[in-house]
Design a protein that fits this description.
This protein is α/β, with parallel strands linked by helices and 585 residues long. 37% of the residues lie in helices and 18% in strands.
Length: 585
């Protein structure tokens, strides 16, 4: 078997993913279909046809609330009957089936969390013979995503639990292949993956920068589904390739490293003195055949999305933002996205949540009416503990701090990339309520080149002439980052750090050269920044990835990104994607 030289077309990718999901909808969690259009409707119909006829398939309303999703008190029926009346939720009604979620990019984090619990086989509330009970809700999920751009996407808590991520926006045909009938095997009839299969998938995941254990489990499950779909009782090499292409490649956060080409000017090896000068078939050294892991990695690399750098944060472990939010969340009494009500008195600007108040009071009406006597008027009796107030969620503004290593001979190129990224981000400053600041460190110290600002004119004037060259006073640069972070947080804003460096500190705080001392000081400051809870990314701008930059990112508790040849647009796309997800954690 040879690995494909080019990525499969998106339609073939999506059709195979649909067929595999239909084979094992609960084990594979779900499928994320991004991009509206008739091709998506055709794929959904294909899924319905492929699923067992007795499997429940429900469409979830886009405005669903906790009561309809999980089940709970039916306030209207309870008030009419004079006793608590419970209703079952959508999750319990679809137990053992599939839920289709339209407009998934608009789902709230709360609803997404409830569904995520059900995908993890958590108990949900249902009604049994009029009595509240709990049961497991084993479901598969189909996310229909109409979002456009990196800012509009479903919550990360759901997309992380989807085995398949399919982008349909580039598909311009409806020529779907016909179903080939029922599978020759069920997934339970396929043998579990052995150690060799798991090692191959794990090695491919590491090479692609996929560090999620859930993704690896999905890949192993997808390989079994592929074997079942093909009528095999054991997993074959082709099934491993399919799983790597459909599950691991869309989650890639880096381009896999390839062997460097051999230098054409290098001298040929000396001739063997015992050779007679003739090349016989027995003397020829045939190249070793590629290993299974190499073939799977090559196939997965061919399937990596072309815009991987702009999607680099899809697998960020700290959670994701939906709806293109700018900064961190904080509760508010008056404005923002509505949250669930809580007990409280409607005063100090807090507003009464009438429906939630009635819901809290309904179970007590019979008892309270009995306390007042049989002649008491039929009215709703509200007590102080029943009162509920409304809550809202709003976002703080964000300040992106660029800290740029301006030392060395390549400083001009680094500064040019940073300048371009700053200008691109400032172009979005008004929409995202964002500000940008810039610190450069070189020689014996650091300098605040650009205080937090939204003004593109001011930024261009400050960035017009940036000095470069000299040593790398990394500790001094991080000290200035600390000061700026404290100022930003003190003003109620959210800092996000973008550190461009190779991590090779060689100048201490006192300006004296020395790598050991400079490294110790910079790591100490990095840990102090990590303790401040600052989100960010360390961009390794050296020609080849360096362990020093990776160690620095670990100390800062930030993402590490190797971009040796990143231009301003690429850097902006990556930072924008990471920023939207990390600051929402």
């Amino acid at each position: 078997m040879t690995a494909p030289d080019a990525a499969p077309d998106p339609l073939s990718h999506a059709v195979t993913a649909i067929d595999l999901f239909a084979c094992d909808p609960h084990g594979l969690g779900g499928i994320w279909l991004r991009g509206a259009g008739p091709v998506r409707d055709a794929l959904v119909e294909r899924l319905k046809d492929a699923l067992p006829s007795d499997m429940p398939v429900r469409r979830m309303p886009g405005t669903i609330d906790d009561d309809r999703l999980l089940g709970g008190l039916d306030i209207s029926a309870s008030l009419h009957a004079g006793k608590p009346v419970l209703q079952s939720g959508l999750l319990a009604e679809t137990h053992g089936g599939v839920i289709i979620a339209p407009m998934a990019e608009r789902l709230s984090e709360t609803i997404a969390g409830r569904i995520g619990q059900a995908l993890d086989w958590r108990a949900v509330q249902v009604e049994r013979d009029g009595i509240a009970a709990e049961t497991e809700a084993t479901i598969g999920l189909v996310l229909l995503d109409d979002g456009r751009g990196a800012e509009e996407k479903p919550p990360w808590s759901l997309t992380e639990r989807m085995a398949f991520h399919c982008d349909l926006s580039a598909i311009d045909t409806l020529a779907l292949p016909s179903l080939s009938g029922k599978n020759a095997h069920t997934i339970s009839e396929v043998a579990e993956p052995d150690d060799a299969v798991l090692r191959t998938l794990a090695g491919t995941a590491m090479a692609l920068g996929v560090h999620s254990a859930r993704a690896l489990l999905f890949a192993a499950r997808a390989a079994r589904a592929s074997a079942a779909l093909a009528g095999r009782a054991t997993i074959a090499d082709a099934d491993i390739v399919t799983a790597a292409q459909l599950v691991l490649a869309p989650r890639a956060t880096q381009i896999p490293a390839t062997d460097e080409p051999q230098d054409s000017e290098s001298e040929p090896p000396p001739p063997d003195p015992e050779s007679d000068g003739h090349d016989g078939d027995a003397d020829e050294q045939q190249p070793d055949p590629p290993s299974l892991e190499d073939m799977v990695l090559a196939a997965a690399a061919a399937s990596v999305p072309a815009d991987i750098l702009s999607k680099i944060a899809d697998d960020v472990q700290r959670g994701g933002a939906s709806g293109g939010a700018a900064g961190q969340r904080r509760t508010s009494k008056l404005r923002g996205r509505p949250l669930g009500a809580r007990p409280g008195i409607p005063s100090g600007g807090a507003r009464l949540a009438l429906i939630d108040t009635l819901r809290a009071a309904a179970p007590w009406q019979t008892l309270r009416r009995a306390e007042e006597g049989e002649d008491a008027p039929r009215r709703i009796r509200i007590r102080r503990p029943d009162l509920r107030v409304r809550r809202f969620e709003e976002r703080t503004g964000i300040v992106t701090i660029f800290a740029v290593d301006a030392s060395g001979s390549s400083a001009l190129a680094r500064l040019a990339e940073a300048k371009g990224a700053v200008e691109l981000m400032l172009a979005q400053a008004y929409v995202k309520r964002a500000e940008v600041a810039m610190i450069a460190f070189r020689g014996e110290g650091a300098e605040l080149l650009l205080p937090p600002t939204r003004s593109l004119t001011r930024a261009r004037r400050a960035l017009a002439e940036l000095p470069g060259g000299g040593g790398t006073p990394l500790a001094a640069g991080l000290d200035m980052v600390c000061e700026l972070v404290e100022m930003v947080q003190g003003r109620g804003r959210t800092p996000f750090l973008v550190l461009l460096t190779d991590g090779k500190a060689n100048v201490g705080r006192d300006g004296a050269p020395g790598r050991a001392q400079a490294r110790d000081e910079s790591m100490a400051v990095a840990k102090r920044i990590a303790a401040m809870g600052v989100s960010g990314v360390v961009v390794d701008i050296s020609p080849r990835a360096q362990p020093e930059a990776a160690d620095l990112a670990e100390a800062l508790r930030m993402e590490y990104l190797a971009l040796p040849r990143a231009d301003a647009a690429t850097l902006h796309d990556v930072v924008d994607s990471l920023q939207d997800q990390a600051v929402a954690a």
